[in-house]
TrEMBL record:
All residue ranges annotated as the AMP-dependent synthetase/ligase domain in the record: 2-172
Pfam family, any one: AMP-binding
Official protein name in the record: long-chain-fatty-acid--CoA ligase
Domain of life according to the entry: Eukaryota
Taxonomic path: Eukaryota, Metazoa, Spiralia, Lophotrochozoa, Platyhelminthes
Organism encoding this protein: Macrostomum lignano
C-alpha cells in the first residue's frame, strides 16, 4: 500500500485480495468507535445510493469527511480500477466503488484467451456479474455433469466456453492437452462454472470446477446456450 501512495497511479489492475485489504483497513480504523462506525456506514449508504443512480464522483461531503484518507492512501489520483483473477465479494466491490469514487469493473480472462473474454462496462452499478463478452468474442455454457451442471441450456448454468480471434490455437507441442481445452469448433473450455443472468447477456462466475470430462459429442449434439456481442 505504501508503494501505491508513492507511485500515485491513475489506473489500477488488482486482484480481489488487494481491494479486500483496503476495505479491512478502513473498517479496522473505525472499529473502536461506535460514532465513527456509524458515520462510515452512513457514508457508504449515501455513496452507494449515488452509484445506483450512475453518479460516480469523489467530491461529495462524504468524500471530504470519510473517504479522502482511503483515496490518499492509494496516491489520491486513481480514476479507474479493474479487478479479476478470483471471485470478489459484493461488500468489497461496493465499498471500493464508494470509497474511490471512480469506475470499478470486473472482468474474466485466461492466458488461453489472450486476456479479457468478458468485462463489465464502466458505470455498471451491479456487483453480481463479470460483464458482457468483449467485441468479437462468443461465449457459451456447456454441460458439466461432474460439476452438478448436467443441462446448461435449461439451467443457464454450466462450464464457461469462449471463442474468438484472440483465443489460442493450442499448447506448444502438447496435442493431447490442447484437445482437453480446445474443442474441434474452436471453443476454449475454461473449466470455470458460470451462470447466465437473464436480465442481460452477462455472466456470473460461480466457481472453478474440474471440468475435465466435458462431452465429446459434436457441437450440434452438445447442449449449450450461447451469446455474443453485436
Amino acid at each position: 500500500m505504501d508503494d501505491l501512495r508513492e507511485c500515485q497511479p491513475t489506473f489500477m489492475a488488482a486482484v480481489p485480495k488487494v481491494l479486500s485489504r483496503i476495505r479491512e483497513r478502513a473498517l479496522t480504523a473505525v472499529s473502536g468507535s461506535r460514532l465513527k462506525s456509524a458515520i462510515l456506514d452512513t457514508a457508504l449508504s449515501r455513496k452507494s445510493r449515488r452509484l445506483s443512480q450512475l453518479r460516480v464522483d469523489k467530491d461529495t461531503l462524504w468524500d471530504r469527511l470519510v473517504f479522502r484518507r482511503v483515496q490518499e492512501g492509494l496516491g489520491g489520483r486513481v480514476r479507474f480500477v479493474a479487478v479479476g483473477g478470483a471471485p470478489i465479494s459484493a461488500d468489497t466491490l461496493n465499498f471500493v466503488k464508494a470509497a474511490l469514487g471512480c469506475p470499478v469493473v470486473q472482468g474474466f480472462g485466461q492466458t488461453e484467451t489472450c486476456g479479457l473474454g468478458l468485462c463489465q462496462r464502466p458505470g455498471d452499478p451491479a456487483s453480481n456479474h463479470t460483464g458482457r463478452p468483449m467485441l468479437g468474442i462468443e461465449v457459451r455454457l456447456a454441460d458439466a455433469p461432474d460439476a452438478d451442471c448436467p443441462n446448461a441450456e435449461a439451467d443457464g448454468r454450466g462450464e464457461l466456453c469462449i471463442r474468438g480471434p484472440t483465443c489460442f490455437a493450442g499448447y506448444f507441442k502438447q496435442p493431447e492437452r490442447s484437445a482437453e481445452t480446445l474443442d474441434s469448433d474452436g471453443w476454449v473450455h475454461t473449466g470455470d462454472i458460470a451462470q447466465l443472468l437473464p436480465a442481460a447477456p452477462t455472466a456470473s462466475l460461480t466457481g472453478s470446477s474440474t471440468c475435465s470430462s466435458w462431452p465429446r459429442a459434436s457441437t450440434s449434439r452438445r447442449r449449450r446456450s450461447s451469446w455474443c456481442t453485436a
